[in-house]
Amino acid sequence: MPQQPTKRPPLLTVTADTLIAVDLGPRRRHRPPGPYRRLFARPGTRAFSLANLIARLPMGMFSVSAIVMIAGTRGSYALAGAVTATGLAATALVAPWTARLVDRYGQARVAVPATLFAALGSLALLLCVRYDAPAWTLFAAYAATATTPNTGGMSRARWAHLLDGDADSLHTANSFEQAADELCFMLGPVLAAFLCGTFFPEAGTLVGVVLLVTGVLAFAAQRSTEPPPRGRTADTAAPAPLRAPGTLPLLAVCLAMGAVFGSTEVVTLAFADATGHRTAAGAVLALQAAGSCAAGLLYGRIGFTGRAEDRYPWCIAAMTALLTLPLLAATLTGSLALLAAALLIAGMATAPTMITNMTLVQRRTPEGRLNEGMTLAVTALLGGIAGGSAVGGWVVEHVTSAAGFGVPVTAAAAALLISLAAAPRQGRGAESMSSGS
């Protein structure tokens, strides 16, 4: 007779009075995906975002490369600031027209030829500097780069198309895009200063052209996420973005904030040069962008319940207050290290301000004109950067580089006054738009 298997006592004896459940399996904690993970789970979003980052990186390189290249060969920061200001002013005039064509005919059909034409302008500037051409040729060549498409605006337009109706995800996408802007302006100056200082003065511009063309071609190839072109009827069916309620004050604030960015860049470069640390200038500017990038990513994870119109003046007020730190560090200590720390802290208020600004611009832009509306905001920024660069260069030449840090503080204070004066009208405009919808 085969032996019966011995019965082992049960691990747990369950009776009618037992109310204990034992789970001997592995414990797994299923955390819900974060907002950024959910954002990039959508098909095609990673591809177009990576390509756009490559195309956007030169935006933080070109002006620094031009300033270092021109000031190093011609010995004048005033000339360098004037040349970059001319190019940015030309871009401010041409960019809305380019954006309108993008909305009408599509991103791929317009962005590629516009980028190639702008690349020729950058190469012409490089050759004019290299072969000591007359000063007026520098202005003409840099103005030819005005057809550079608003790559950040095209990326935001894709998010708006993909996330139509999802306000929370769109807030996260806008925060990511602003953090991407800051990342490019963090790495761009460092890369430009390294290339110009290590190899030859024109190296930063040359590498920037290669990255711009490569990134735009890769971005344009991602057709699955591209918003459909609106055609010619978009220009007549929807009102012009400039006529939308509350848009002009937002653009005026962008103009003042652009002056903050442009003057800070020129003054910081001059201050680093005056203290004998020209090669460290890019790293110092990168710290400001690093603070803004970190703040932007954190800002995107916060779920706000109040109105963006109410947060807007507070963001600008924080930026104005923190911008006094670089002024104090430069005038009282003259230390580049302390200036770098002050710029890092001051940058933490930049991204929240810009994210809120772009959110308000998107809400006020008529349907079918989104890329044009956001490009108008970027155009105002570029115009402000142009004016800030010129004013900052003049103050550096005629006063001191340390005193030049008063220019961004003044520009930020002007932005605060504009936002406070327009706050009641913006609130009424938002209420009328919401009631009308």
From TrEMBL:
InterPro entries linked: MFS (IPR011701), MFS_trans_sf (IPR036259)
Keyword tRNA processing: no
Record field: transmembrane: 47-71, 77-98, 110-133, 191-221, 242-261, 281-300, 312-330, 336-355, 376-396, 402-423
Protein name: MFS transporter
GO molecular function terms attached to this record: transmembrane transporter activity
Signal peptide per UniProt: none
Any one Pfam family match given in the protein's UniProt record, by short name: MFS_1
Alphabetical UniProt keywords: Membrane, Transmembrane, Transmembrane helix
Record flagged with keyword Transport: no
